[in-house]
Amino acid sequence: MSEGLQIVHIDEALAVVDKPAGLVVHPAPSHQGPTLVDELAGILGGGDPERPGIVHRLDKGTSGLMLVARGDEPLAALQEAVRERRVERVYLALAGGRIGSRTGTIDAPIGRAARQRHRMAVSGAASRQARTHFEVIELLGEETYLEVRLETGRTHQIRAHMAAIDHPLVGDPTYGGRERYGLGRPFLHSHRLSFSHPLDGRLLSFSSPLPRDLAAALADARAA
Q1: How far is Cα 82 from Cα 88, in angstroms, rounded to an integer?
Q2: Domain architecture of the chain: domains with CATH
């Protein structure tokens, strides 16, 4: 198993894993090398054999908690729960600039950017509804430390939405963020997952602390 990949919880229906930054979730034509699907072969199940058990994705550069399924029925139930917004997904992020409001909601459709197909953009091609909620944890000298909650889950949603309000994530030059504090990836971490178990309905909740690179960057931002 890749260094840093951890299984936080596992039962007959599902698993919760803590993904390290740099690990791609599933095979793609543009990627050569190991994936989370490869690493968890034998654990995942259900759905597309190229991406078995994948309930929701994290970008390659995003670390933290992911929910995966172990069969067709739990996969269908968990995917429906995500669509119906019954899975709470909370992230920690460091955004450029000082955000003026303590809380906010970004409600703007996201689709592929017209000239840069690797990017997403508000009102891009084939846009779909996207809604992101944020709450300021701490105002720093040149950045804002945030808790971000996804209501929908579009590709690059948090990254594109923060860029759209002129507060791109630190370490995310793809969306206009500054490369600071030695980070080689966006400051974005899947911090908390809460959901009802698809078999018995019991509430499950998991949290993951900032990994070392993000914790060090946050300390540097506080000291700046």
Answers
A1: 8
A2: 6-223 (3.30.2350.10)
